[in-house]
Amino acid sequence: MYDKFFNWAFKIGMYIRCEGEKKPTEKGEDLLRRLIFSIRAEETPGRFLDKLSETITEYKTNRNIGLNIGLHPELYSQTWVADRFYYLKSSILTGFLNALGER
């Protein structure tokens, strides 16, 4: 179940890192780092999902960034509590971190 969120995060992370192009850019890596830093400290499901959606929305709607990205629809179709939330958070952060470290 959590592999789909990892795969989504990795795909989105690579897209952010490359700014929609084929090769990583310095600006894209900075944007991905900013996303990771903004969500990693959130310890409750509501705040985590709010910060994630806020940052993704900024990256999509900001004219200086303008990335064609979105949120996984299943993030909001389930209730995330206790261990399920921590598994979700770990899979998303791991996907983003793996995208950042991909060479």
SSE blueprint:
Layout: H1 3-18, H2 26-40, H3 45-61, H4 82-101
Helix pairs in contact: 1-2, 1-4, 2-3, 2-4
Could you explain how this protein is built, in words?
This protein is 66% helix and 0% strand. It has one domain (3-101). The longest helix has 20 residues, at 82-101. By secondary structure, it is mainly alpha-helical. It has helices at residues 3-18, 26-40, 45-61, 82-101.
Low-confidence stretches: none
Strand content: under 5%
Strand tally is 0
Computed structural class = mainly alpha
Judging from the principal axes of the Cα atoms, what is the shape? globular
Distance between the termini: 27 Å
Largest β-sheet summary: none
Query: From N to C, what is the helix and strand string?
Result: HHHH
Count of helical stretches:
4
The chain-level mean pLDDT equals 96
Helix content: 55-70%
Output the radius of gyration: 13 Å
How many structural domains can be distinguished in the coordinates? 1
